[in-house]
Design a protein that fits this description.
By secondary structure, the chain is mostly helical. About 60% of the residues lie in helices and about 0% in strands. The radius of gyration is 19 Å and the shape is elongated.
């Protein structure tokens, strides 16, 4: 069990086997729990919601991730994810926001928008990802470019990532100043976003 999650052969495992692995304590490997939780949700959509209060830390984050990918889309799943937006752990809040996107719940911007002012940059980053997912491109563009003014490098990095994916050529002038940022992650995100938008702009338009 010392191997990383990417070496696990999950295909064909029974629910019992998946749960046995999920109960193991693995340090510094969130992907281990994420991949297992995704498969647990596929095998039994009710299991993780029923046992969520038993988990903490990376295991809880994995469970929230798995719930967002559950094939069972219903009010119970939706309300559970929404309830986690007020969790005391900002990483769980961020994961709940991302899981709302994964579950294709794009109607909850009024609940997510206040989290753009959260104290945690991880929550703000997740809110920016949700804005890109749920909002019209023009509104998302305004929110993402405004987030570049944030003093936290994690927030700026997330905004740059989403602007790159948005693909709007107008973003180039906002991104350019960060291509030489002193923070290496922000610099990389800016250059990647810039190159992505340039590449998209070079693609020939499809003929009618």
């Amino acid at each position: 069990m010392a191997e990383k999650a990417e070496t696990l052969i999950i295909y064909g495992m029974s629910l019992s086997d998946l749960l046995t692995l999920f109960a193991c304590d693995i340090d510094n490997d969130d992907d281990f729990y994420f991949r297992l939780a995704q498969n647990i949700s596929q095998a039994d959509a009710d299991y993780l919601p029923m046992h969520l209060q038993e988990y903490s830390g990376s295991r809880l984050r994995g469970a929230v991730f798995g719930i967002g990918l559950s094939p069972q889309k219903d009010e119970k799943q939706r309300n559970l994810l929404l309830s986690l937006l007020s969790h005391s752990d900002p990483l769980i809040v961020a994961e709940a926001i991302d899981s709302l996107s994964r579950a294709d719940y794009g109607i909850f911007w009024p609940r997510i928008e206040p989290l753009l002012r959260h104290e945690s940059p991880y929550v703000i980053g997740a809110a920016l990802r949700y804005a890109h997912f749920a909002l019209p491109a023009e509104k998302a563009f305004i929110i993402l470019t405004d987030a570049l003014k944030n003093t936290d490098s994690i927030v700026r990095q997330n905004a740059l990532d989403e602007l790159g994916d948005l693909g709007d050529k107008r973003a180039l002038e906002f991104i350019r100043p960060y291509c030489d940022d002193s923070d290496s992650d922000v610099k990389q995100a800016a250059n990647t976003a810039y190159e992505t938008i340039i590449d998209v702009s070079k693609e020939p338009e499809s003929s009618a």
